[in-house]
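Practice problem 4.
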């Protein structure tokens, strides 16, 4: 199996920012409250950052 080295590039930060923005907005709209918005934003940033590693 081929191994791939992960590099943190600009794409990683862009995907993390977009993921945080989208899921944070959805969390604010759907759930309301500061804690829910922040937690949705953190999850979005983690998911987006993981996607950014592969693209």
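Answer key:
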């Amino acid at each position: 199996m081929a191994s791939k080295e992960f590099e943190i590039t600009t794409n990683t930060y862009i995907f993390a920012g977009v993921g945080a923005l989208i899921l944070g907005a959805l969390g604010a709209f759907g759930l309301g409250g500061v804690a829910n918005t922040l937690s949705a934003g953190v999850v979005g940033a983690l998911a987006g950052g993981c996607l950014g590693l592969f693209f």
